[in-house]
Structure formats: C-alpha cells, structure tokens
Amino acid sequence: MIFNSLLIANRGEIACRIIKTARDMGIRSVAVYVDADKDALFVEEADEAIRLDDGGYLDSKQIINAAKKSGAQAIHPGYGFLSENATFARKVKKEGIIWVGPSPHVISVMGDKLKAKELAVKANVPTLPMTSKPSEAKNIGYPLLIKAAAGGGGKGMRIVEKEKDLKESISSAQREAKNGFNDDRIFIERYVEKSRHIEIQILGDSNGNVVHLGERECSIQRRHQKIIEESPSPRISEDTRNKMGEAAVKLAKKIKYESAGTVEFLFDDKTEEFWFLEVNTRLQVEHPVTEEVTGIDLVCEQLKIARGESLKFNQNDISFNGSSIEARLYAEDPNNDFLPEIGTLIAFEKSNSAEARWDTGVIKGAVIGTDFDPMLAKVISFAPNRIDAASKLAKALESAHIGGIKTNRDFLINCLKSPEFLKGNTTTDFIERVNP
Fold first, then answer.
1. DSSP code for 69
2. What pLDDT score does 223 carry?
3. Annotated active-site positions, please?
4. CA dist., res. 397 & res. 351, Å (int)
5. Cα torsion 250, 251, 257, 260: sign
6. pLDDT tens-place string over residues 246-276
7. What secondary structure letter does DSSP report for 252?
8. Is 401 exposed, middle or buried (0-12, 13-18, 19+ CB in 10 A)?
9. Distance between CA atoms of residues 232 and 325, nearest Å
10. Which SS3 state, helix, strand or coil, does residue 221 take?
11. Neighbours of 324 (CB within 10 A)
C-alpha cells in the first residue's frame, strides 16, 4: 500500500504539522480549503490546494472528489471535523483510497462511550460506576457527572451536586448533545472531585503489534477543554504508569487497534485509583509532548502503519527522557469566561531568545474570525526536568511579539509560574482553585 501523495482533510496548525512530516518522508501533500482560509499558512505550504464549496471541511463527498482530482492516494483526517467519523472512513476506503487511521468499525465502537465502556469491562480495564438510567443515579452517589454518549469537547457534560438538580441537568445535557452530535443519549457516572486526566498514547499496526508511549497529563482545563498538557505527569508513579500502559495496550489489542490513538483515564488524586474514560481514535492536539519525550514522530508512524508496515520497535525499545509541556495559545479573553476574540494579528513573531517548538497555522496579518476554533498556536517546551520545561515555556510565551488581538498568553504564563503548578498540584480544579 505504498502512496506518494497525501490529502489532508483538515486545516490550520494540524494541517501544517502533517505537511511537515509528509515533506520529510518525500510524500506530496494536498490541502483542501474554504474561502475563509484561502490565504492561510497551510494552503501556502501544501504542494497543491483545492478549494471546497459550501459544505467545507465536513463535506465528505467534496473531500473524496478532491483526492481523486489531485491523485492523492491517501487521506489523513487530522483531528476534529471528520477525523472520528466512521461513515467518512468507510467512504474513503470504498473509493480505494488509503485511510490514515483506525478501522471504521473501531472508530464507530469507540465513538460510542457506552459501547467503549462495555468493551473496557470485558477487557478487565477499571471503569467508574455508571448508568444510563436516571432512576439508578442514587445508587452511584453524589456528586455525579452527566456525559453525552457521543462526541466530546465538554458538550453535553454536567456536574450534579444534589438530587434535586438531576432532572434539569439531564435535560440540558441532552439538548446540548442533540445539537452538538445529533444524538441525545447520555449516561451518568461518579464524579471524582480531586482528579487528573491522564491519557496513554498508543500505536498499533495491522499485524497485531501494540505499544504505549507513556502518559500525558491534561488536567488544566477551562470549559472541560484542555489548555496545558505535559508528559510525564508530575503525579503518576512508575508503577501506576506501567499499570495504565498495560491496561491501554490490553484494550487496544482486544479491539484490534491500528494507527495512533489515545486511551484516556481518570486518576483519583487522593486514592491513586484510575478508571477508563474513553478512546480517542485519532491524533490528539497534545501529541507533541509525547514526541518530545520519546523522540518518536507520531505522524510518521501513522503514515507508515497506513502503508501496512509493522512497528519497528517494541515496548522495551521505548524510553522516556526529560519533561515536555504544551500550552495552547488562544485568541480568547480569560477575564470574560474565556470567550473567543476576533481581529487581525498585526504582529505574530516568535522570539529567538527562548527555545520552544511552535506548532501554528497562523502568520502576521491573519484574520481570526468566528468560523473556526480560535487557537493560534501550540507552544511546546522540552527540558531535562519539569521545572526547567515550565520556565522555558513561560519565557517563550513572554518573549513572543503578538499584537492586534486579545489572547490568553498572560493567563498561561501565570499558570506556568504559579507555585501550585510548579509543585505539580494540577488537578482538574486548578483554575478555580489557583485563579492564575
């Protein structure tokens, strides 16, 4: 299944990221774009760019036609948009185009959080007590967390402290889930107050080989969406890391997982127990921190797996070195509930005085509107230890020249410099507790 031309069914920084690895591998890259992106960096960097009509990045038919028109033999979906759409993956494969990702069946099953939890139970992976019946909620005990069975990103999610609030919380969660995913199914599980979001990066090939690449901690979130991620976690012991990794690999082998993916766990900061949350059947936004500590290019591995190649390393070959932290730089106002900002970037210059990796899809003069997610860049540091990684990242953010639009830069710097962050007290209540 050799291919030398790849269409990227995405935009922005992830399109630029995939183009970079494709170029390094000698693979021709084809971008697709809408009018709002006609002057975007990823369009300029691709070897060819094809305009999409009104359906845009969610129009599977147009994207497949663009692949045929350009002669692209494979499609990489990036993340977001159609990346976890099993129907799109099936259509791609039906047209004889190589799909860079797990099988449509795995995407479908893992995209349904209820089915995913059932499979985790069968694989003897720890899961939180849960129910899809409101009448059984009291058996779990309060506080509770309501979640949408389909989708993610914090949509359809509600914390319920008291029984009297359950009915209304379910109704509002169902409405939001219906609007976001056209699926109003919800389930209820125990809410762990002092918790951490820990995810295990996995890689699987078509020959049944699966490895994990350690953990990422993604606990610092606003509106249930991550803004600072790191690897390794400052809290997880080597023993717990091994147990989580083994659980993730066990589940991945059971579902015959291929490509890059992430198994997410919830870690109780008090008891050190952990429970399965979900599987993300795609590359994660925060994948660079794993690349930094392992030296493994995850996009390169995805492309090689899509070509039918076996992994060239086993679990014992993987080593973890140093510490890496990623901050998501957004056009948003932290003082106004992190609501998105719009405007023109009159300045966007990275400083040479601070060593950091910038994964971005914008340049000076870019117009930040309401059409897409307002993330400007992911800024990633690496150092032999966590304190130095935090200092390097804060300096990189401070010394960059960004103008014309309000951002969360100062907020991120305050987080990174806070005593609580530096001590590793980064549970999911960090923002409310520390108020950086």
1. H
2. 80
3. 278
4. 9
5. negative
6. 999 999 999 999 999 999 999 999 999 999 9
7. H
8. exposed
9. 9
10. strand
11. 26
Residue 43 has pLDDT above 80, yes or no: yes
Q: How is residue 26 annotated by DSSP? A: T
CA–CA separation, 229 and 133 (whole Å)? 34
Query: Contact, 100 vs 282, CB < 8 A?
Result: no
Determine how many CB atoms are found less than 10 A away from the CB of residue 108. Answer: 17
Cβ–Cβ under 8 Å, residues 251 and 204 = no
pLDDT digits (tens, 9 = 90+) for 122-146: 999 999 888 888 888 888 888 998 9
Produce one character per residue of 220-257: b if its CB has 16 or more CB atoms within 10 Å, e if not: bbbeeebbbbbbbbebbeeebbeebbebbbebbeebeb
Which amino acid, one-letter code, is at 252? A
Q: Where are the beta strands (DSSP E) in 269-415?
A: 274-280, 323-330, 332-333, 339-340, 343-344, 347-349, 357-360, 367-368, 375-383, 401-403
Q: In the β-sheet with 274-280, what is the strand arrangement from edge to edge?
A: 274-280, 259-268, 195-204, 210-222, 225-231, 323-330, 375-383, 357-360
- Beta-strand pair 210-222/225-231: antiparallel
Highest mean predicted confidence (pLDDT) among 162-171, 260-269, 349-358: 260-269
pLDDT category of residue 364 using cuts at 50, 70 and 90:
very high
